[in-house]
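re: that chain from earlier
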Amino acid sequence: MRRIGVKPNAITFVGVLNACSHVGLINDGYKYFNMMINEYGIKPAIEHYGCLVDILCRAGCLEEAKDIIEEMPMRPNKVIWMTLLSGARNHRNTKIGEYAAQYLIELAPETTGGYVVLSNMYAVAGEWEKVSKVREMMKKRGLRKDPGCSSIEHKGVVHNFIVGDKSHPQTKEIYSKLAEMREKLKLAGHVPDTSQVLLYIEEEEEKEAELENHSERLAIAFGLNNTEAGCPIRIMKNLRVCSDCHSVTKLLSKIYSREIIVRDNSRFHHFKDGLCSCKDFW
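^ sequence. v structure.
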């Protein structure tokens, strides 16, 4: 745009900053943020600050992101607090996660995702007493986590799956494919991340089985069974993909030589050759 003389506007910089976030370009993010102000006289809106916070959170610069939030000229919204909370969960910084969750819950106590991310962060840290307290808080406020649901379209028909679903007409074939996937994943060296599986499931084998039945894995199994080799598999999920399913889907894209595109409630994930386009998980 600069080369051909088209003047970028505030929306242009939201797109550029968002792109910097997804590929981890911290220095470029700051460069374009400052360019917007100093060269084009554009006053940063909350969306621009949100992008800058996202850039820093994805890179693990949580203290820096916290400083940006505290210095913003406007009141942070729930998206910004959720970004900091998610970054703290991803980089296992409980202190900053609690800080973000406190402000998020004060600002938007009805935001179920905040409680879920906080609970997952505590679970990863092994702080199960705090996990129970978060769930009790949700219960008292009449909130509950929606069950995970993944959808895949095939020949004009949308097929929906929830965790552990056995209602589909192809259930036998789907679970047979899941068993095959499990064996191939083991051979590829995958070790299930059971750190966030529910407290009341004590046995490690039961925790692994719980993960294997997540809705997106059922949808992937259906896709592998019903689409031609080499065809992309496209899935929609109502919740955020968990870290273990993210790792598994990366491996499956390589094992079966498939592109797998998952649109969760956060963003698109494009899995190909054992890699993913996002920087959500490391």
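The first strand starts at residue 149 and ends at 154.
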